[in-house]
Fold each of these.
Amino acid sequence: MKNRRHDHFLLIFILCMVTGLLSGACKNSSQAKHTVVIGVVIESEPLVVTFDGLRKGMADLGYVEGDNITYIFNGVVGSDLDDIDHEVEGLLAKKVDLFFTPGTVPTLRVKQAVEGTDIPVIFAPVINPVDAGVVDSLSYPGGNVTGVETGDTLPKAMEWLITIAPATNFYVPYHPDDVTSVSTIPVLMSTAATLGIDVTIDEVSSPEDVVAAIRSLPEDTDVLFVPMARLEAGLDDYAAAAMECDVAIGSYQPSYMRNGILVNFSVDLFEMGKQASRLVDQALRGASPAELPVETADGFLTINLVTAEAIGLEIPNHILRLANTVIY
């Protein structure tokens, strides 16, 4: 009787051990299946910090690289559409679960590439996602795409520029092939009309054109930089020419913040990436991007006192106290 009872308990013990092993194997298998792969497509170098913010945000949410999440980022792809499309095709071939796309152009190209699939696309930043054709509306994006927009930083940047460096005219250079630049012009013109400012919009094809134009600007003219990926290489030259001619430059591009720009009202790209991580998490958990409202990032004012001194501009203390960042 004792032997039978012993055998009975032994059998139960063995069954429990086998069940535990099988459960562990199933658990490990389940964990492996839930390792997600995110493909990252970035057009310009300054936007890489947005990806850094995303990774920090995902880590804060419990995602561990090499364990339950993997990022595929092959470096900055540039603004050539063929290069962007080639990168997207390569990521699709690697069966990514989601795309992260800082910038308007990569977002539009990825949106087109994933049409007809269920692969989510999360952007950060995009300046005018509705006008650019990225989403149907901010509340109900539709399709596969949602993300974080920059919000009304352009009107605020214009307001701050004329407050700090009063002028009656803005000179705005842009490249006709920069989709984001073109999409900002209607907002720019509307805001200028409200502020009573004349705007000279100049279609340029090279950094040399911008430098030459700055050197020939009439008095009472400030320069406003809209996004211009194809012209960013000349930022330092633009700032040098402006300081030589006592011309103030304003922008709402976060990547232009320290290139001699006098006034910048823009988002914090790192924080924007962290903000986007929450949308990524929701999408990975099954939420449809079509029903995840586009979020808006906070804007921050930066004033460059080094530039102000170089162009002989004195900025009152009460304005400096309103700045989030002052560069000395």
Amino acid sequence: MNQQQNDTNALPPKTCTIERLVTVPKDVEKVLNGLKTATRRNGRYADIGEVMTLEGQDFVVEKVYSQSLGELTDEHARQEGFANVEEYKQSILSMHSGMPWLPQMRVWVHEFRRA
């Protein structure tokens, strides 16, 4: 069960800025094409209601919550623009050399939609 937070006041302080939320060119393209509607980060990069602008298009953050890697489903992977969890996992591990994939490791989920 994920700890979904819809009250921004209950969230810890951001650890980065929304401008850094989606930066990988392939991911930016997926967002612009509607194939990616969420991103997972090891810190909190956005508040609910905050706007991310990619190539002049605005996307509103709708949900921000903590989730463990062990909770990921194929549906979550599809939100990230991948076919399934294994494809998503391999993509993440290829970007973060030496990173272990631990089921108990927690990440921050940022779900967004086109404004």
Amino acid sequence: MKNKVFSKVKIIVLLTFLLFLYTTICAFSYAQTTANDISKSVFRLHVLANSDSQEDQNLKYIVRDKLLEYMHSLCNDTTSKEEAIRIAQNHIEDLKTIAKQTILDNDYSYDVDVEIGNFEFPTKTYGDISLPAGYYDALRVKIGEAKGQNWWCVMFPPLCFIDVTSGVVPDSSKNLLKENMNEEDFALVSESKSNTGISFKFKLLEFFGHNGFITAKK
């Protein structure tokens, strides 16, 4: 009798473990696929300051503004991430020159490195748009030793000025994002997180992204 009870307990424990394992695998697969789908729709900007000193942080913002001004003049009518990346690639030396000249104009001699690649980003909110942690294609600008605080934004669709203005994403930017995403992914990044289903799915993306489970997919 005891052996039968023990066997049943073992079976229940095994089934519970298998169910947990299956659920975890499904959640991870969903998070990986969704995060990569979202990342395919945006092109981001990542600026790293030389240090955390007030002077270096101020310089970071000045360089940022000059680069955004130039990219905006080039990408004003861009309708896809691929086009935005292609434009940035074609003008990468110009971007480096602008950054370097801006640094010199402000009486610093830091070197600057500008590259396009796939980099890890934390969860960030731009007005009423939230992007989960994960790997995104981005233009990365490293000033000097690049050991200071980062500044992150989205170059396509254009969300870079949201943090310093009204905090409301323009409808034109939302429409571009919507056109480049499927319906479910757009709902995840744009709908109110008071929606229980949306909130739970977004937290899945945050959990796997913050803990390094979501990796770059080439």
Amino acid sequence: MTSDGALSGRRVLVCRAAAESAELLSSLAALGAEAVAHPLIEIAPTGDQLALVDAAAQWKRGEYGWLVVTSANGARAFARAAGRMPSGDERPSKVAAVGPATAAALRRWGVSVDLMPEHDYSGRGLAEALLHELRGSARPTSAVLPVSHLASDTVQRALEAAGHRVHRVDAYRTVPNGQTVRTLLEHTRFDAVLLFSASGAAELARHISVVSQGTRLIAIGPPTAAVLEARGVRVDAIAKRHTSQGLIDAVVELLGSSSDPPVSDSKPGGKPATLTTRTLD
């Protein structure tokens, strides 16, 4: 639970497009924060659109036992490629989503979700949930996995190691947008930066020299934090729940009771220190 004014005077950078962040921005504003949304990456169509359309058509024909979706962007790209997403009794397979945002994106296209991890909204959590669901199946299943061209192979490797067949297909590309964020960070100090993906974290790491030393970096989950840690960049917190609300809770826990004053508009020079990753227990 959080209280009104808990983030009064705090400035927060939300590294996601404003169109996807309206509810998050509103919640931060209600807590007194000045919140700005600006994505570190842009979403672009896959370079092989025909392969994606073919995979969607195969799924609609019932050639896969599962549709496994690891991001809201993947859900939207796959739905567009399918043309019309079958729902209800027409649905050709079971559907698994990595977390609430992805499940919500699927529901907006009329597709209900059969399986979602209970707590760990990551590739690892999704793989574990699927393997638990498939344990004891009479025969291996097949799955279509629409992902970013840079997505990890965590889900694919786990399913294939258990004998299942996975058709991974590029559904979209991520395009760096860090230069404009760099300009923003050069001219504005933030108390916290919220990170939503491994690709976004990698882009921020490229521009870490302009992030003020007092700025807290908060990751939505361990894979996002790991990208920064691997590049020697501190992570001040990982959301306990890998959701937008989990990020808000982490910001409040870090800054709501902090004795540190809000950042000023003057930016000291120098590179931020690189510290051992710190997570919320």
